[in-house]
Amino acid sequence: MSVVFSVITITYNAAPVLQRTLDSVAHQTYKGVEHIIVDGASKDETVAMAEKYKEQSDQADNGHEVRILSEPDKGLYDAMNKGLRLATGDYIVYMNAGDIFALPKTLAMAAHTAEKAADGQKPAVLYGDTDIVNEEGRFLRHRRLVAPKRLTWRSFMKGMLVCHQSFYARTDIAREIHYDLHYRYSADVDWCIRIMRESSRRKLPLRNVHAVLTHFLDGGMTTQYHQASLKERFQVMRTHYGLLPTLAVHAWFVIRGAFKR
Predict the structure, then answer these.
(1) pLDDT digits (tens, 9 = 90+) for 206-238
(2) Which of 82, 85, 156, 186 has the fewest CB atoms within 10 Å, counting from its CB?
(3) Which residues have CB under 8 Å from 59's CB, separation 6+?
(4) What is the value of pTM for the model shown?
């Protein structure tokens, strides 16, 4: 069973942090990679960098295909939907500008996890852990929320236990579940839950790769707009888990925080 990964990178005026993401994808030892760069009509050197990267990749003949789309969009999640529509691989991997794979063999490890399924069916989701890095790519800390050994759609009641960049969804499922543009900051949480709910409906497994998959750049959109993001996440959880369970979980978050201080 061969696996192809569609790595989707969303950019907008991302020149200061893009190169390390491009290098990280290029250095993946696994050959089944389709790298889709969706740019929001950047005004800096982002597109030129992407085009140079594509040219180098074409010349390298490393089994990686690079595709670039640059046009105005309605924001991050609209761009993610565009990438989703363009993807032709078996799994969707979102790796935005500034984020990098933990190791050159990360995708090879994920492919191995997918290929060892006993019944020959590819898992609906491959997932793992995430470390937080600074703008120089230096390790800052392990992500506070740790990927569970067994993940289900109800797991996110405890928070987004798996970072979006470390959540690889099967493309045939993901293509049917677009990001909800009504959410400005938490459409990724909603999308992951809906992917897992559909996987449960189809009785497909979610497999832990048992490795750190992503080095995530500190200070993303949900960090910059923390309060608004928390309000949206409450609405996402309420939609999927109901009002009373969501209130109970958030009450526990408050109590837990008080004891930690």
Answers:
(1) 999 999 999 998 865 555 566 788 889 999 999
(2) 85
(3) none
(4) 0.91
